[in-house]
Each structure stands twice: as structure tokens, then as C-alpha cells.
Amino acid sequence: MDCIVVGGGLAGLASAVWLTEAGHRVTILERRGSLGGRTISMPIAAVDDVPDNGQHVFASGYEDLMRYLESVGTRHYVEFPGHMSIRLPDGTSHRQAFGGLTGLRAAFGALPGVAGLDRARTMLAQGRLIRHVLRQPAWLDDVTADEWFRRIKMPQAARDALWDGIVIGLTGDKTEISSAKVPADLLVTGVRRALVHKRAISIGYPTVDLDTLFIDGAEKFFANNGVDVRHRAVVSTIDVADGAVTGVTLNDGEHIPADAVICAVPVWSVKGLLDQVPGHEAVYAAADQLTPVPIVSVNLYLDRDIGMADWGEILYGGEGVLEQVWDRQRMHGREPKDNYFYSTTVSASYELVGKTNDEIIDVQIAMLRRYFPGAADAQVIHGHVVRMPKSTFAQRPGTAGIRPDQRTAVRGFALAGDWTRTDWTTTMEGAAQSAARAVDVILSDR
Ligand SMILES: Cc1cc2nc3c(=O)[nH]c(=O)nc-3n(C[C@H](O)[C@H](O)[C@H](O)COP(=O)(O)OP(=O)(O)OC[C@H]3O[C@@H](n4cnc5c(N)ncnc54)[C@H](O)[C@@H]3O)c2cc1C
């Protein structure tokens, strides 16, 4: 078959690799000048370094993403150290091993900063939470995670220490925005994966920049297997005749014929592309409801070691958003030479994203000084702000079930992308799983 993949982010790359492995001829059409979509590196000449557009972390249940990395030969660049740390505003850092004794103690309410009666209240609230996750009451998608925590009487201290961070980490959004059903579903996915692998889910990270991890191996694979990659090719319609796909048309009017097409553009780019696809109204309605969530990342090259206790630390008790700090040189196994490189991530950064670069750097440095005594006199050698107003998408109450399936009403045409229906939310694994399912649709349509 002659196949077209629209979009060269992770969902498109994985689709192209797996269609090629299945023996088909593939063309990738990517609107930008390079591949990678939302997972890219951004070289900075001033410090001779290659930071990313934002730190990406992995969960050990990311099966399809790992399969993609196996296919492009870079699986060995992901490490799961088995721990991460949380830091409280008083500067104390607590190392969290995943599962094991720490998990057991947490189940009994023993969380940092949670004391006295709140421990018993936390244990009871967590019991109610687990019951809701397993039984999924009908109202779960009618309320925000914030309201859910109020209903199960989760003490504020436990929310500050763990649960708000979990919601923001899992959904990418604030507790007062995200539907309670999203974290509940993800907890089910996590437990399922943990049971299959007989291991608690843990968090890992790439030991190289994102281009080396996701793109370089893919480009070699494409060159070796005759995949045609066309940059700056902007698709304007998916073409359909008699219920089957016939190809795509670019914005300059060129029609490219194909036997099969996978459309792997982000949710905010899909409107207009599917006008000829029966049922596109529901997809466009979903696209209107899955609104973008900003992430602001700052790559900070400092003149000294701020004394991080771990490769990654989550800062609790911040400003209601999840703030994370990453020790990039440690993660990449490099000795600091001319500077100490820390990367910070502010998820759901609705307020921060509108500020100037200098203001953002000031806010982040002030935050490091608050949490890390070693940062008190640190000077910024170079600061690099990455503002991504469209990083992930929000799933507000009432949106359960609106994410479209990969299978469409058109023969030979499938949707992919982190926003299509998967076991995950807006993640790299969601993108990879959507690709696996889209490729299955195409292969089963033959
Ligand atoms: C800062 C940041 C941090 C993140 N952190 C994590 C994390 O820690 N863990 C995690 O799992 N996930 C994380 N994510 C989410 C993850 O990056 C995304 O969910 C995933 O990369 C989405 O991949 P995708 O292929 O679905 O979409 P995209 O990567 O957006 O790819 C879509 C591609 O389609 C192209 N395109 C659009 N329209 C057209 C058109 N008309 N014609 C041709 N091409 C088109 C675009 O240019 C783009 O290259 C993070 C995201 C960001 C931005």
C-alpha cells in the first residue's frame, strides 16, 4: 500500500515506522521544517548545549512508546532510577521510592507534612478514593478533581503533600479544571500496568536530548527503509470518494494520492482537515472542548551547584501549580564544566505564560532560592525560557468519552494523536498508543 502520515510528532513518527515495518511504502507530511512536534530539542550556542522544549518524563507503563524506541534503536537511552524526591518549602527533601515501604506508609496516611489526626483522615479519604476509582460512580465526570477531594474529605495537608501533585502530574492540569474521572481512569491504567508487570509504576527519564532520543534514530530508519519525509508540507484536506480515502491535498493545491492515510495532527489543528469525512462534526466538537494547557519551562545555567538531593524534585506547597526541577547534567551523566544546568517545569502555567522572559526567569530563580539553600547566591549565566501555550489539553467535567476513536467511517483512513481515545491522557504514551491502534485499523482495512 501507499500510505501517507500527516504530522511528524510522536504519533506520526510511530505510525510511519510501524507501517514501514509492516511492509508498506510511507510518505510523512510535516508542516514544520523538522520532525518531532511537541518533543524537540533546542540547541543554544551561547552555552554550547542542547536543552529540550521541556523536560519529558516516562512512566514504566509506557509500553507502546518503548516499542517505538526499540524500533528506532534508542530504548537504551531511558533510565528508571526507582526514586524521585519531593521538597517542602522549609527546604527539606524527601526521597520517594516507588511502591515498597514508602507506598505502604503513604497508604496509611504517612505523607510529608501530614501529622496527627490528619493521618487517620488521609487514610480514610484514600480508602474512599480507591473505592471511587474502582467503582467509577456516574457523577465522577460531573465534578472537578477539586470537588472530588472535598467530597471524600481529603485533608488539605495530604492534598498539598501528594494528591494535587498527582492530579496535575497525571492530567497536566489544575485540580479545579480537570474532571475527576481523568485521574481516576489513569490510576486504573497504572494499576493494570503494575499488575501485568508485577511492579509498581515508576518514573524515568531520557539520558539524552529529545532529538537524539526520538528523531535521529527515526531519521536513520526512514533513510534506510525508503520512507519519504516531506518538510513544510501543510495538509489542508483528507480526500475521500465513495467511502474510501483517496489521498490528501496540500495548501498549495497539490493532491497526493494514497491507499491509506493516518492523520496525526494535534487536536488544535484538526478542524478543516476532515470536512469530507462523515462524522467529522463530532470530532470538531471534541476539538472545541479539549482546550490547550500551557507549560512554561526554563533552562537555567547557573554559576554554582544548588544541592539537589535527586535527579528530579517536585516542589510542594508552591503556588497551586506543579513545579518541578531537574538536574539535567546528573540525568545525562555529565560532569558540570562551565555551569550547572537545571531545568524547571511549571505545568498548567496559565498565569506565568503571559509574562516576559525576564519576569519568568526572576520568578523561577526566586522559587529555587526559596526551596534550595544552595541557590541563595546563585547567579544566572544563561537563562532560556520555553513558553508552550499549547502543550497538552484540558479534560474538563463532562468530556468523558468525547475523544474520538482511531477508526473513522472512511475505509483506509485513521486518526492518531495524543487526543484520540487511548488508555492515557495527553502524554507521549497516549500518542504512541494511538499510533499502534491507527496502524491496526489501516492493516485490518486492507
Ligand atoms: C513542555 C511539555 C512537557 C511535556 N511533558 C510530558 C511528559 O513529561 N510526559 C509525557 O508523557 N508527555 C509530556 N508532554 C506531552 C507530549 O509531548 C505530547 O502528548 C506528545 O508529544 C504529542 O504527540 P503527538 O504526535 O500527538 O502531537 P504533536 O507532537 O503535536 O505532533 C503533531 C505534528 O503535526 C504537525 N501538523 C499539524 N498540522 C499539520 C498539517 N495540517 N499538515 C502537516 N502537519 C501538521 C505538527 O507540526 C506536529 O509536528 C509534554 C508536552 C510538552 C509540550
Automatic annotation (TrEMBL):
Keywords: Oxidoreductase
Source organism, top-level taxon: Bacteria
Domain (Amine oxidase) ranges: 10-443
Cofactor(s) listed: FAD
TM helices/strands, residue ranges: none
InterPro entries: Amino_oxidase (IPR002937), FAD/NAD-bd_sf (IPR036188), Flavin_amine_oxidase (IPR001613), Zeta_carotene_desat/Oxidored (IPR050464)
Record protein name field: FAD-dependent oxidoreductase
Natural source organism: Gordonia liuliyuniae
